[in-house]
Design a protein that fits this description.
This protein is α+β, with helices and mostly antiparallel strands and about 280 residues long. The chain folds into two domains: about 10-120, Jelly Rolls; about 140-275, Winged helix-like DNA-binding domain superfamily/Winged helix DNA-binding domain (Arc Repressor Mutant, subunit A). The chain contains eleven helices and ten strands. The chain has helices at about 10-15, 20-25, 85, 110-120, 120-145, 150-160, 175-180, 185-195, 210-220, 220-235, 270-275; strands at about 30-35, 40, 50-55, 55-65, 70-75, 95-100, 100-110, 170, 200-205, 205-210. A hairpin with a 5-residue loop joins strand 4 and strand 5 (about 70-75).
Length: about 280
Amino acid sequence: MNATCKPPPDNHLLASLPPEVSAILQPLIESVDLEAGAVLYEAGTVQRHVHFPVTAVVSLASPVLDGAYAEAAVVGAEGVVGVCAFMGGGKALSSAIVQRPGLAWRMSARDIADLARDCPPVMQQLLRYTQALFVHMAQNSACHRHHALAPQLCRWLLQHLDRQAGDEIRMTHERIAGMLGVRREGVSVAALKLQREGFIRCGRGRIEVIDRSGLEKRSCECYGVVQQAYDQLRNGSSAWPHASSAASPDGRNPAGAGFRVTARGSSRSLAEREGFEPSMQV
């Protein structure tokens, strides 16, 4: 851990905060290494810390009766894990599970709540991110209910791929099935079909994406809807790091480089049809 070094602009949310906040953050934030499978907090418990991922990827998941978890959203370098800490609730609405190990910045829940209360620009950026996160969660929830497994798997792979470096996702079919709330056999069948079509290459405990554009075409509309929410987050603030300045020449997204947004026509999102409003305020 390093509690004295200044956070570099490797987490987009931290990088979007006003420059004068950096001096305040120095004694409040520390770097931590997150291990795969670690549970940062459980649903219903009081949050003691928030985490700003840098290279780590964290799933926000709801526990079910058999002890498994269903993923509601995934957080990478674009955001923060633990929004309830500064929303006034205190207790977590979902569990947070590290899916990809890596670096994160950690801050106490009390400190982030105090900073948000005392610094309106900080609260504004936190709320803008939370709005995008709520769209993410609402859209994924509707996706689980209404879309076939193959498009869901494409959407899930793309959302995780966007938040890491490289084209390989290290996770078993069984674990992916748990996150999607389906049977492992279903994920294996869907993955095999995507492999035969040349979109992915499967190995033991890993999936390599070899045709991203093809995977985007096979994904349901939910991927584009969620991406547009995060794109609006960046474009709505001059302080937020823009993907155009960080993306690699081939259009792929290294960890912490933002997201590509794929247009999905004029169709309404599933979240809207289910009664969720993407522009809702928090």
